[in-house]
What does this fold into?
Amino acid sequence: MLDRDGRLLVTDLARRFHTSQVTIRKDLEVLHEQRQLHRTHGGALPARERALDDPTLREKEQLHRREKSLIAAAALRMVQKGQVVVLDSGTTTTAIARGLREFRNLTVVTNAVNIAAELAGTPVDVILTGGTLRKNSFSLVGPMAEETLRNLNADLLFLAVDGFDVGYGLTTPNLLEAQVNRVMIEVARRVVVVCDSSKFGRRSLSLIAPTSTIHEVITDRKIPKQDLRTLRKAGTEVTLV
It folds into this structure.
């Protein structure tokens, strides 16, 4: 059914197989863990296992909306007046940006054109890096973006990632994006990875940084238990939503 339709809904599957939605959800979770499909809020999509997969921002916005909203809310509780906050490009960081619109005495540094647009006309001071525009993610990358970041200091970095293999590190499909993210980590006093649990156990093409470079992770409660134990054992703070 997934191969034929390209998407599955829990409600449709429950009717099709004459069983409860609870049972269907459990079955989809098992198939997700086996990498046979990609679990989403309300259903499932085909598995994305290729290192070069680079879905658009609009495609990503359709996935894990509830989890991203809860992660953003937890991130917002960390932000204080007078801080300089770096926001990487991504749907979770965009959700954080929307929550920052009412903040005063706050500076946001970002390489994401859409995030700058979200904060335009608000009390928040916005610094948008220069660079070459990536159409998939609305992000600015390249030497200009990196140079801007190297001249700044930040209190907090909220970093969204495409893959998080705890033993390997943080990854993204684009080489230039990885380089910009690396500089963001260098200039921030505290690095917080914001990602839903589907990102764990996955690797994209480009390594951003090893797990040891981050201070905290905000994710949902479906994070694999082994990954949660490994992170906490290494001294990384983990906030579950």
Observations:
- Residues 146 and 183 are 6 Å apart (CA to CA).
- The first helix runs from residue 2 to 5.
- The chain has a mean pLDDT of 91.
- The longest strand covers residues 188-194.
